[in-house]
Amino acid sequence: MSKVAIVTGGNSGLGFATAKKLCENGIKTYIVGRNKERTESAALEIGAIPYLFDLGNLEGIPNMIKEIANNGNIDILVNNAGIHQKKEFTEVTDKDFANIMNINVQSVFAVSREVVKVMKKNGGGSIINISSMASQYGLPKVIAYSASKGAIEVMTRAMAVELAEFNIRVNCVAPGFIKTKMSTNALDNDIQRKNKILSRTPLGYLGEPSTIADAVYFYASSESSYVTGTVLPIDGGNSIGF
Fold it and tell me: What is 4-176+209-235's CATH superfamily?
């Protein structure tokens, strides 16, 4: 019987690459997205199962997980979905901050809580949270996003300790500067920033979405059976570059 995975925000970027990797390895994968056309198209392309849902609807999360679990166990959860905002510190409203924390932190907690209920009944599983190197740096104009990713890394450690007795492992992948459509457009329009990034990245190039997918798959597989509570930077050495 094949394993079952959920990838939130799996219809594009790093989430899509991750869902693709899981599908290629025979894992029945649900990709959760709020855009019907994009989610269904992505699922069709890689052989995943689309699940249309807006993670801002916290009250609806228990039913979503119940519906997915009715079709079998949930062995793997990848908390990838998140939103970003670039804004001057004093221009960030309370609503802005709360909205980012709601999607990037509260929905991760709520989805994980419901999935853990299923995993406990079925003898364990693996949860992989997606952070960002923004949690390690002091980056300007992304205060809410940075705070949310810092919270994700602390949650990862707390979850790992509490859930270990149930054979549920919890780890985190922290992507650095990865070559997605969005990041490529942004950096191509800001050559100075792009050169700064590359100059302090020892490997000297941007990562590919597949490198994140590979790291997530490691955590999802039995190859990491004795690993929990870790945060793995996938950044070409950028966080230790000079």
Answer: NAD(P)-binding Rossmann-like Domain (3.40.50.720)
